[in-house]
Amino acid sequence: MGKVIGELSISVDGYSAGLDQTEERPFGTDGGDGWGSRLHAWMFDTPEENRAERDQFAAAGAYVMGRNMFGPVRGGWDRPWNGWWGDDPPFHAPVFVLTHHAREPQPMEGGTTYHFVTDGIESALAQAREAAGDGDVTLAGGASTINQYLAAGLVDELRLHVVPFTLGAGTRLFEGVPSLRLEQVKSRAASLVTHLTYRVLT
């Protein structure tokens, strides 16, 4: 069985999204422009420098994400859309979306299929584990979703991409999570980000 990995880009003060999230600014106001903004500039502006981390994220056997990481409700779920990620999302694997709104699975180009899970984090993880087989399951965010899994003791590893600026407000990793013991596995500094990997100890 593979690992359960929480993976997230965060500001130095621990925020994965700023305030005032909109369809045009899915990660809120963080001083940048466009979809990726400052929190994710390392992925788009310096992709080759961060190829190892991008490839590692793409290697998961399945993913779990919160509904807001999938995308906002546009016109109600009776007229659903296909999320932030476009017609060919970067996952290329099953993605299990935590939501309170039931919806049929949504296949996309490139091998991604979104499955909408209404019965909680344990159910989503169980389905993702089954889909991943011996592969890893990546918790792709946002911070609120990863916090739930951390609080439940269901995360084996954290991969954090720390971007050198502060947000001061927004959605914060570790909010409401009891004290954790972490073992640093590796770290690597790049021009726009520092990549940190921790094992979550029981």
From TrEMBL:
Q: Where is each Bacterial bifunctional deaminase-reductase C-terminal domain found?
A: 3-191
Pfam families, per the entry: RibD_C
An example Gene Ontology biological process: riboflavin biosynthetic process
In Gene Ontology terms, what is one molecular function of this protein? 5-amino-6-(5-phosphoribosylamino)uracil reductase activity
Protein name according to UniProt: Riboflavin biosynthesis protein RibD
Q: Which organism is it from?
A: Jiangella rhizosphaerae
